[in-house]
From TrEMBL:
Residues 5-59 form the HTH lacI-type domain. The lineage of its organism: Bacteria, Bacillati, Actinomycetota, Actinomycetes, Bifidobacteriales. The keyword DNA-binding applies. The keyword Transcription applies. This is LacI family transcriptional regulator. InterPro entries: HTH_LacI, LacI/GalR-like_sensor, Lambda_DNA-bd_dom_sf, Peripla_BP_I. CDD domains: HTH_LacI (cd01392), PBP1_LacI_sugar_binding-like (cd06267). PANTHER family: LACI-RELATED TRANSCRIPTIONAL REPRESSOR, XYLOSE OPERON REGULATORY PROTEIN. Keywords: DNA-binding, Transcription, Transcription regulation. GO terms for molecular function: DNA-binding transcription factor activity; transcription cis-regulatory region binding. SMART domains: HTH_LACI (SM00354).
Amino acid sequence: MVGKSTLYDVALKAGVSTGTVSHAFHHPELIKEDTKMKVLDAARELHYFPSGNARGLASGKTNAIGLFSFDMLISSPLWYVPKSNSDGVVEEPEISTFPLYVDEIEHGFELECKERDQALVLQALPNGKYESFVDSVGRVDGVALVEGFKPDIATIKALCDQRPVVLLSEPKSSYNALSIQVDNVAGTYALLDHLVLTHHVRDVAFLGTLDSPDSYERYNALMERAKRYDISVTHPSLGKWGASIDQAMAEARTFVEREDFPQAVVCVNDQLALSFMAVMRMLGRRIPEDVIVTGYDGILAGRFSSPKLTTVLQPSQAMGRLAARSLIERRGKPWGEPKFKLLPTKLVIGESCGCRRPSRPSMDRLVAADVSWFDSIKMRRGHNW
């Protein structure tokens, strides 16, 4: 286990005062850039994490836990371009792809902390901002990191030796941390089984970048399951899909006009699936008549899309709750060894795969059901209204 370095150790190694070390993390604008970098380099080498709110406390504890992620409050969907109205007021972005799965993780984390009367810190930090990260984790006794935001390997290893750490949406690793991941393989298998056995799909395109453990697992699982049915799977490049709506339209048009345009498009996540469906409609393509589209995550927006999105639901809120509960129960004590928890996924059948919309009850039936429910409540409570 790496011993805990102090502010004085960093000051000595960097050849500066302790006040300068403090400024490097809390008020970097007050010191020169080269001085700041000298301090940060020393801190990295010594695996130093400021003690934040615990400074001066005999226990060295803050009694708070933290969830750190990429920006959870992103301002727009993939290709939103801000526009101003006649009064010069910038219009609100289209929010049909919100909330994201990471928002559900955050919600679960908050709920668990609230129920346990636990102080928490929620922070979205850009990658590469080492000083911001180490200053923030110094304010908490336990750390949960969402996939998509990850410091360098040495920093994570040092952090795992000093505090309990939970890595969300991460496979088994050598870190002395608790890694929590959903069963991407089982979810993808169930999805492809449905497409092949129910809708007789023979060729599929996997849409999405392979830039995370989840996306790799989903793609590899799709390729592996496809062997069972001897069906074709392609992985077309997205190009600059997220740059703008014009670029998205151009990329989509090129994709649609391909001779090998697939029967089904399996998207790496729901956000991409909903955006792809929107662009297909703009190009005059019908879903699922012209192309089947599926997602992954089970975000709320997919339940209200038209057609309703067929997807694989991952228990994001449960993941957030488990992360918070695990950190609270550790009481600041590092894990000391790698831990792993795999959460189940569930296939959610919508209409974007070709399944028919269930018949909707008439208004008379709805009213009758409401009256019956109201009468039963009165009887149980003994009221005679």
